[in-house]
Amino acid sequence: xxxxxxxxxxxxxxxKEEDVSLLFEEKILDRGIKYFEQGRVKRPFVYHxxxxxxxxxTLPEDYHxxxxxxxxxxxxxxxxxxxxxxxxxIAAVMVAWLKKPSIFKDLxxxxxxxxxxxxGPLVEIVMDMIRYDPDVVxxxxxxxxxxxxxxxxxxxxxxxxxxxxxxxxxxxxxxxKKLDIFREYASDIFRAGDPGTAMVxxxxxxxxxxDKYTSLDDIIPAFRLDxxxxxxxxxxxxxxxxxxxxxxxILRGFLQKETGRLGxxxxxLNSVELRLADxxxxxxxxxxxxxxEYEYIEERLERLEALRADIKGFTxx
Length: 317
Prior knowledge:
Blueprint: E1 2-3, H1 17-21, H2 26-37, E2 41-47, E3 50-55, E4 63-70, E5 73-78, H3 88-99, E6 105-106, H4 107-115, H5 119-132, H6 136-144, H7 147-161, H8 173-191, H9 195-214, H10 221-226, H11 229-242, H12 247-262, H13 265-282, H14 292-313
Parallel strand pairs: 2-6
Antiparallel strand pairs: 1-5, 2-3, 3-4, 4-5
């Protein structure tokens, strides 16, 4: 989850523990410290005033974290679905930098070595990187293509990334990871003083994201055709409960609108109440407070309560 507001005005190398404590809620920072102590921070790198790392979370795939100091301000992003500010994964990386900076490999040193190498060995290194992570090809093409070809290239890649065969509307982490490559590249050229080229790269990304995440009608044609309104709404409610990456906000508005259009306010409220009761019962058998399971259920309760308030707000049921 990208975030970009911070009171920190120091350089990355000068940040102290008291500075980091101001960036996180106490319970989030405590979880971040625990994650660091458990060795969940992986592949940490530092490049000038930027930190990059992965963090093991609740899912099989690790989350990707980036921390930058830009013009004296702290900017961070994480690929986890946490939507309430700076997350524990960002906290874990920041704590790792404070407690054990030696684990961060300095890309600046690698850069100096690469600049002294001949073209042949450099090409071999780039090809090895692409074989290790095929997404690196995006970076290579963005760097090498002339500006007049950039827009067409980005548009084609957006079409591929958002293809019907690839998109999973309940788990879009891989999509966001790819989109972040284009976003970060656009940010780099913008900071380098070339806003025109930055927008050439960024506009197709924005247009594709808006088109694919705000038009949900094509996802559910079967439900529209068979007329089974309640099954249709139950399926949408399941999407809303499990959605990540901000998609829940879109689905919340979608559910509110469709519930009213179909005249199923009472049914939707009953469905929401049943799910709320199930989640609340799960607290009885849960482990210690503020575990990953607790955080997951707490977020779902807040999500369902918000939807319930929406539906009650525009009906008399």
